[in-house]
Amino acid sequence: MTISMRGLSSDTRRTPVWGSPVAQCERAASELRFGRPVVLNSDSHTIAFIALDAIGPLELERFRATASDRPALYLSRFRSDSLGLKNQCHGIAIPLDDMDLDRISSLAYAARFSPPENWRPASPDLAIAADLAHLSLLLPAIIFASIEANALEFRDCATLCANDLEKARSTATLCFSQIARTSVPLSEVGACEFIVFRGGMAQRDQIAIIVGAPRMGGTVPVRIHSSCITGDLLGSLKCDCGDQLHESLRTLAQLGGGVLLYLDQEGRGTGIAAKLRAYASQGEGLDTIDADAELGFGPDERSYGAAVAMLSSLGIRRVNLLTNNPAKVEYLTNYGIQVVMTTSITGKFQAQNAKYLTTKAIRAGHTFPSEYLSSGEFHAGPRVKYYRKG
Question: Which residues are the active-site residues?
Answer without folding.
Answer: 300, 302
